[in-house]
Amino acid sequence: MNAPSDFTPAGPAVKSAEERLSRYDWDAFAEDLDRFGCATLKGVLTPQECRDLAALYPEEAHFRSHIHMARHGFGKGEYRYFKYPLPDLLGGLRTALWPRLAVVANNWNARMGIDERYPDAHADFLRQCHEAGQTRPTPLLLQYVEGDFNCLHQDLYGDLAFPLQVAFLLSEPGRDFTGGEFVLTEQRPRMQSRAEVVPLMQGDAVAFAVHNRPVQGTRGTYRVNLRHGVSRLRSGKRHTVGIIFHDAK
């Protein structure tokens, strides 16, 4: 088994990602996550970076597995899980996003009465994953063509699951594809489910709750259950890259 240090991104990749992320208002970002269960970061990736990442899809050398959604009842479309080491851009962003998201995740767990707290460094969390037998990388590249969709789901790959993940839209809406909106649903106790449709442009990122999030009610804080998916693609081709922070069994 590899140690987390064997696939931690190089310093320059992390520094570049940290500089890229420093321009965002993270207090407003955390507030949106608290209010809606999701928050967007505009223009994280350049159009060229988006095209370069999407162009990796047919290159087998970058990936550990290839999933056809229809075979598993996940929807219609396909995706590939990256293998370690991740591309520098993705590895750097995964490492640099972690401490900002961990603050939110620790706050959520405290409010929901969950004892688990997440460490300051992502490598330390990966070490916990690997000690629990979760050793397979989970960042993935998704591809949809006309008629494809992704059923509402949760990306839980083992007992350890970080409560937030991030997806980046690599294709340009209106030019590369139509339809294919990112959808988040929230199941509230004794109430009907709430849907959130998140408009994204090429290079934008959306962070969202993987499983549960806290909501303040009249009688205190309670948990709501969330699922995410992608609506039917009306035309063209759509690529997305997803960063999941826990590894899989």
From TrEMBL:
Alphabetized Gene3D superfamilies for the sequence: q2cbj1_9rhob like domain
The protein depicted here goes by the name Proline hydroxylase
